[in-house]
């Protein structure tokens, strides 16, 4: 059966004959093409009158992007054009779009070809591959991919500030600059459905941040926009989260049978903006229930000189290391990670800790290295283990211990101008050993780690202690979250005085 007839029979339900109602619920499927054998390379869903959601199969390209076709009375917008299909696979995007728009025209009593604009949420290859298929289409304009071209086409004269209308005829979209993931990134808002198309800036998956300051500013502007305009749902360009909260599919996954839904409730924008602000100048992957953040530093951005980076040891069942920071380079990082010690060194540590339950332990690396370049999952370094502080008459317990980085809980660089926050604590630990580390911001501040008797917050999350005063220092018996302080492991002011 010809593709056009197949589309008309199966992909255009009677909902297209209904009038578009403001804020109407979108008709989205329970399951998208997700890599199963025999599935089509392109799934089309008529989500609302004049709005189609297209999903490229993971069998065509593991990125499996979502594309959006929006039609008005005078023209249509295709937002993104997909990723390059694998060898031997075809992506019938042009034929699909043509058939959908032709049917739309017939339903509205028009026979002529509907003008089309092909634009992009951003310039990355998994969103632009299909452009070539539309360059010979009559009355079609393919928008360029640079900041200058995008800003000029949509009339965004104050980039990255401001917004612009884009009229399809009886349907005026709003277009906003959204750099941070990509310099030319935009968001598009569709008033009839109250849908916000957010590209790679926000979706259920791994949100890659390439320009942190731009991304922060974009999050603030988008959340402010949502206070002015009702947003029912946020529709991104990918789904990479499992339906289970906080669980990501690994990059390159070919089959995702238990995906998170595509649409995020509009209320997510306020939480996302707060999460972005709370990340600080982060360096690790930070996973939340509906999305995760990953940082892509610029070349040379963290080119610190090698130095000695001491660590506080927390935990006996599971060993965690917390970098002993200062507020100047190259020590201006708060870092907490799960570590693995060789069996003999671990046994020595546990035996000594059992005989000295009120003492704390530190590690002094045997070599000088740059913190950011060295501390990555599965990386190794050698260090000496001490009871007490290695620079303050500590007692050596084990020498030349090979330490393996297993999992980063928190990794962030201090930012100039940030004020100390006495009520902020970072949760970590597992099993019967749960800890809180004071979140360090700026001088004068405090480095403190305490053990608590309950599970105060998800690991890596920041817990707030209301009405904290002064430095926020905790003492044994203080309540915080759902627990109380059992033991104060370490408190340091001097290294963070200025």
Automatic annotation (TrEMBL):
Entry-linked InterPro entries: Metallo-B-lactamas (IPR001279), NDM-1-like (IPR050855), RibonucZ/Hydroxyglut_hydro (IPR036866)
Signal peptide: 1-25
Keywords noted in UniProt: Signal
Positions of the Metallo-beta-lactamase domain: 64-238
Pfam families in alphabetical order: Lactamase_B (PF00753)
Recorded family membership: Belongs to the metallo-beta-lactamase superfamily. Class-B beta-lactamase family.
Protein name: MBL fold metallo-hydrolase
Natural source organism: Lysobacter firmicutimachus
């Amino acid at each position: 059966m010809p593709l056009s007839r197949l589309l008309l029979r199966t992909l255009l339900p009677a909902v297209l004959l209904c009038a578009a109602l403001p804020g109407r619920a979108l008709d989205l499927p329970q399951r998208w093409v997700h890599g199963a054998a025999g599935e089509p390379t392109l799934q089309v869903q008529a989500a609302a009158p004049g709005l189609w959601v297209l999903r490229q199969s993971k069998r065509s390209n593991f990125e499996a992007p979502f594309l959006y076709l929006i039609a008005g009375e005078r023209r249509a917008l295709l937002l993104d054009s997909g990723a390059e299909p694998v060898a031997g696979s075809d992506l019938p995007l042009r034929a699909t779009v043509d058939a959908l728009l032709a049917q739309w025209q017939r339903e509205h009593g028009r026979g002529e070809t509907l003008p089309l604009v092909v634009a992009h949420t951003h310039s990355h290859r998994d969103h632009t591959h299909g452009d070539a298929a539309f360059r010979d289409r009559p009355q079609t304009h393919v928008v360029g991919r640079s900041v200058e071209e995008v800003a000029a086409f949509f009339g965004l004269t104050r980039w990255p500030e401001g917004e612009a209308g884009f009229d399809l005829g009886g349907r005026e979209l709003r277009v906003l600059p959204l750099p941070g993931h990509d310099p030319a990134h935009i968001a598009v808002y569709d008033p009839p459905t109250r849908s916000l198309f957010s590209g790679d800036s926000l979706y259920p998956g791994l949100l890659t941040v390439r320009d942190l300051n731009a991304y922060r500013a974009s999050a603030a502007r988008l959340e402010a926009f949502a206070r002015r305009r009702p947003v029912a749902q946020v529709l991104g360009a990918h789904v990479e989260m499992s339906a289970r909260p906080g669980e990501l599919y690994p990059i390159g996954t070919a089959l995702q049978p238990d995906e998170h839904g595509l649409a995020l409730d509009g209320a997510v924008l306020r939480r996302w903006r707060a999460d972005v602000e709370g990340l600080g100048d982060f360096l690790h992957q930070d996973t939340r229930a509906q999305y995760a953040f990953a940082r892509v530093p610029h070349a040379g951005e963290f080119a610190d000189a090698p130095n000695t980076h001491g660590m506080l040891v927390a935990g006996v069942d599971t060993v965690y290391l917390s970098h002993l920071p200062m507020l100047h380079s190259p020590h201006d990082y708060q870092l907490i990670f799960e570590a693995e010690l060789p069996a003999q060194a671990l046994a020595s540590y546990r035996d000594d800790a059992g005989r000295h339950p009120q003492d704390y332990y530190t590690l002094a690396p045997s070599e000088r290295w740059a913190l950011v370049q060295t501390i990555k999952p599965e990386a190794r370094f050698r260090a000496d283990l001490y009871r007490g502080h290695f620079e303050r008459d500590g007692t050596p317990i084990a020498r030349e211990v090979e330490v393996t980085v297993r999992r980063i809980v928190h990794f962030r660089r201090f930012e100039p101008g940030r004020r100390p926050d006495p009520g902020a604590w970072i949760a970590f630990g597992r099993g019967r050993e749960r800890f809180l580390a004071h979140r360090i911001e700026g001088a004068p501040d405090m480095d403190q780690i305490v053990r608590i008797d309950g599970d105060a917050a998800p690991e890596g999350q920041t817990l707030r202690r209301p009405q904290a005063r002064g430095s926020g220092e905790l003492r044994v018996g203080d309540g915080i979250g759902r627990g109380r302080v059992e033991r104060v492991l370490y408190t340091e002011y001097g290294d963070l005085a200025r």
